[in-house]
Design goal:
disordered N terminus, binds flavin-adenine dinucleotide, alpha+beta, 8-stranded mixed beta sheet
């Protein structure tokens, strides 16, 4: 089929932006395949950038489906959501319309690593996402399965590469496009596993995607295999919550979106979560039935940081593991036992559940299951998420070896923006490691690849103090507005107001100086170590744990009162004060990294044959496979030695 599609020249490319009015197949600027978390963000971002966009997905009623946990955010993932929101993405706003339990994780640590998280009403999220997608200007949605890609033959003007120019649906109809984004999640040759049973499916109740997987393999993409799993769902009324530890939500709730000051539901009306634990009986059931559990026996790698109960029992024998009982929604009768992802046969899953405290009489509504699927080695894509092999073809989401809704959404926004920019021959929109968690995620994937499902963590990020959840708008909204056009004027104005208010507030706080003893009298709560001879700036006093803007303004109402009128502004001033001195040093380091990032490597460099630069065969192969775009990216490829980097640097400087 690929050979056929290679021969098949597009019938009519049409005028970019025209659709079925022209003869030949309908034409769109951007076609997105898949309506999951990556696909919805990609389609909406491309449309916001002004591209006529088509989202083709198996079923419209599964758009925005949360395949596993009913929650968004968490440590590192909350940062990604704030960055998606800063680029005017959807998931943060939709979560704020659908969250039922908000909790900031990592509160004991500094605000740079707080993890914004919420339990989400699964049904509401899907409804709200579908409403948003179906009402996005320039975005058309079509139900169908994409089976193949239409490709032009390799041409010299396309650097000898072939170029995607459309898609073929399972019914044989074609759609032509300037750019195509693949966001097929766990569906490429997806195979569901429960006990010893295995059957093809992308997730429970959904077909798998085999034609596309074959197309990609035949095109020469390196394909790997990964696995993941989900827990059983339990009837709420069958659980004895009264004997379990209850977790109440935060009050006030911290919204995900910069556009929201509050969320749709008051903290007192939100739902609690409950905590229970596994015990030796659970271990026994797992260990005695390994022979009935083919998912566990497979050598395919699963998510390290969201392991199945079987992996936990095998890796950490004789330990007790937490099981969080999380609500699936306001009017849902289901509870999601987080931590109990399992692929034992259904009857043994029920036996395992009822051996846990509080779940003795629990009724299992759906069994847990595992899914194994193809992913594409992400070293085959550039930082704009376009593939090296096929021009104008983009990959985003779980297809790139990541796990999680937030990782998928983050890649979706970037792919949507870049597919749109590419369709109109504009330069790519790249987020670097120094600018965002999105940059770290994509840089890690494209330079290092992954052999197990990749998830975001704060520990992956070198510039944590700068890349905070509170300042994602400052880092990305202006670039998104000016360079990509993916940000609405309203969001841009809101971010501009916040930026100028912060700058003004900081400069006012720097200008107010008091003798330290005076501050101590005025604010006895501020447990300062006071040097009596040196005056203290208000900004320095604000750094102390027990001082906030409200307290400062009660002492110096004029001019500080006005900075307390917006809670978000007051809190952000406090955070800016906290990190002021540490940031001074971090900014120097960021500048050094940016210097390396500015040293571009020629796109058409043939690492395998070039003789002007001395490199070992091993390094040549690694560079050939990953095709780094900058010296900085080359230096992060495992196995590319410092000596090779020095030689590359010399080569780049001579070539300039
Ligand atoms: P998906 O959300 O999977 O969306 C893919 C979309 O593409 C679907 O709408 C599908 O219908 C569509 N599609 C596929 N092929 C075609 C085609 N040929 N034509 C048209 N449409 C197509 N994540 C975690 O973080 N932790 C977990 O524990 C976890 N467990 C999981 C357990 C299971 C069983 C599953 C299925 C997923 C799990 N995930 C987990 C992963 C999480 O669901 C994904 O990370 C996230 O949904 C990925 O988003 P995506 O947009 O890349 O893909």
């Amino acid at each position: 089929r690929v050979a056929a599609s290679l021969r098949r020249r597009p019938l009519s490319l049409g005028r970019p932006g025209s659709d079925s009015a022209a003869p030949g197949p309908p034409h769109f600027d951007v076609v997105v395949i898949g309506g999951g978390h990556a696909g919805t963000e990609a389609a909406a971002a491309a449309a916001r950038c002004g591209s006529r966009t088509l989202l083709v997905t198996h079923r419209v009623d599964t758009i925005g489906q949360m395949s596993c946990n009913p929650s968004f955010g968490g440590i590192g993932k909350g940062h990604l959501m704030r960055e998606v929101d800063a680029l005017d993405g959807l998931c943060s706003r939709i979560c704020d319309q659908s969250g039922v339990h908000y909790k900031v994780l990592n509160r004991r640590k500094g605000p740079a690593v707080w993890g914004l998280r919420a339990q989400i009403d699964r049904k509401l999220y899907k409804q709200n996402m579908q409403k948003e997608i179906l009402n996005t200007p320039l975005l058309t949605v079509r139900e169908g399965a994409v089976e193949d890609l239409i490709l032009s033959e390799p041409e010299p003007e396309h650097a000898g590469k072939c170029r995607v120019s459309g898609v073929v649906l399972v019914d044989g109809s074609t759609i032509s496009a300037e750019s195509v984004i693949l966001t097929t999640g766990t569906f490429l040759r997806g195979m569901i596993v429960i006990g010893l049973d295995k059957y093809p499916a992308g997730r429970l109740g959904d077909q798998s995607s085999v034609g596309l997987a074959q197309t990609l393999e035949k095109l020469g993409f390196t394909v790997g295999r990964l696995k993941t799993g989900t827990p059983p769902r339990i009837a709420k009324e069958s659980i004895n919550f009264s004997i379990l530890n209850k977790q109440t939500p935060d009050n006030p709730s911290v919204p995900f979106s910069f556009l929201n000051e509050t969320v749709w539901i008051k903290p007192e009306d939100q739902l609690p979560c409950y905590l229970t634990h596994t015990n030796p009986r659970v271990d026994g059931i797992v260990l005695e039935n390994l022979h009935l559990n083919s998912h566990i026996k497979e050598t395919t790698k699963g998510p390290r940081y969201c392991p199945s109960i079987e992996s936990k029992v095998l890796r950490f024998p004789n330990r007790v593991h937490q099981v969080w009982l999380e609500p699936e929604g306001l009017d849902s009768d289901l509870i999601y036992p987080q931590g109990l992802s399992v692929t034992l046969p259904a009857e043994l899953q029920e036996k395992m559940i009822t051996s846990i405290r509080g779940l003795e009489k629990a009724k299992m509504i759906h069994p847990g299951y595992g899914v194994q699927y193809d992913y594409l080695d992400p070293r085959q894509i550039t930082p704009s998420l376009e593939t090296h092999l096929v021009q104008r073809l983009f990959f985003a989401g779980q297809i790139n070896g990541t796990t999680g809704y937030e990782e998928a959404a983050a890649q979706g926004v970037i792919a949507g923006i870049n597919a749109s920019l590419r369709a109109s021959d504009r330069p790519p929109f790249i987020v670097s490691r120094t600018e965002g968690y999105i940059g770290v995620l994509i840089d890690d994937l494209t330079t290092q690849g992954t052999s197990e499902p990749y998830r975001m963590f704060t520990s992956r990020v070198e510039f944590r103090l700068s890349l905070r959840p509170d300042n994602a708008d400052n880092r990305l909204t202006f670039r998104g507005y000016k360079e990509a056009g993916c940000v609405s004027p309203q969001r841009y104005e809101r971010a501009s107001w916040m930026k100028s208010s912060l700058e003004e507030g900081i400069s006012v706080l720097k200008s107010i100086e008091f003798s330290s003893s005076k501050w101590k009298t005025l604010i006895p709560q501020a447990s300062m170590s006071v040097n009596k001879s040196v005056p203290v700036r208000a900004l320095d006093v604000l750094k102390y744990e027990d001082v906030d803007m409200e307290l400062l303004a009660s002492v110096v109402p004029e001019p500080l009162r006005k900075y307390t009128e917006c809670t978000e502004l007051a809190e952000r001033l406090k955070i800016e004060a906290t990190y002021e001195s540490a940031l001074f040093y971090q900014l120097q380091e960021i500048k050094e990294v940016q210097r390396d990032e500015a040293l571009q490597l020629p796109e058409d460099l043939d690492y395998l044959t070039i003789r002007d630069v001395s490199l070992s065969d091993e390094v040549r192969e690694k560079l050939h496979f990953s095709r780094p775009q900058t010296i900085g990216a080359a230096s992060r490829i495992p196995g590319v030695t410092p000596a090779a980097i020095v030689n590359l640097l010399r080569f780049v400087k001579t070539a300039q």
